[in-house]
Amino acid sequence: MMRRIAGVELGGTKCIVVMADETGQITARETIPTLDPVGTVAAIEAVLDGWWQEGAFEALGIASFGPLDLDRASPSYGNITSTAKAGWRDTPLASRLAARYPVPVAFDTDVNGAAFAERRWGAGQGLDDLAYVTVGTGVGVGLIVNGRTTRGIGHCEAGHMRVARLPGATWKGHCPFHGDCVEGLAAGPAIAACAGRDGATLSDEDPVWEQVVDALAQMSQALVSIAGPRKILFGGGVIASRPVLIARIEAQLRALIGDYLTLPAEDFVMAPGLGSLAGPLGPIALALDLLGDTAT
Ligand code: ZN
Fold first, then answer.
1. Would the pTM count as exceeding 0.85?
2. In total, how many domains does the chain have?
3. How far is the CA of 84 from the centre of ligand 1 (A)?
4. 76 is in which domain, residue-wise?
5. CA 51–ligand 1 middle distance (angstroms)
6. Same structural domain, 134 and 34
7. How far is the CA of 54 from the centre of ligand 1 (A)?
8. pLDDT digits over 146-168, tens only?
């Protein structure tokens, strides 16, 4: 008898609701546009209600865009908090779904979900220390340290760290909070704003990639210095459409580390093993972890 685990991957433009078993096989899948919170959450519930009527699911995982309140001791635990996305600020998410379905509910960031999916079924199998980076409309980092995600004062996000600028660089960057943080230099909208046109139309030799590679390599160096991941996986639309960047980021990272640390000789910076399934399988992996189903 295969287990029935439900998952919600809530992204900024679309939400993927899946039913899957413990092997990561997706048995049902619905995609909902992410519009206003009232209509979107109701649409998520309609899908889950239908599946629930076919037979109770054992657990529910939610992996969402943020920032999120991930502090279980907080009264607003499970909410989307200070997001710049219109209408979604202070939206209860996990608490609302947990009240509707009497099962364990796992809640984490979309990228932490993807990191756990990669650890369970993808390129990070068997690793207790792993980083998953997405470079798309933003830069997000899922980080597993000693087999767990990081917590603390809030939804920490390495994509917003500040990095040194390339010599002579003066462009102000594109992050609404920080200007030239990593996301402000390397995310898809930043690339388009800096280059003056969609990044997909640029050649591999365009100088904007030097800025992208440099920012992501510096962020990777910080991740290595702080948490010692055994692999760093790079996904998201910007990387998926230009996979040549992965080798460039790795070369720059190795140069930045120098002789200080010995990195694994191969397969250290890689594409996700699950490809585009890392996202939708994220909440399933989170739910299985919550149930105590050990990743093998
Ligand atoms: Zn920022």
1. yes
2. 2
3. 12
4. 5-114+276-290
5. 38
6. no
7. 43
8. 999 988 777 889 999 999 999 99
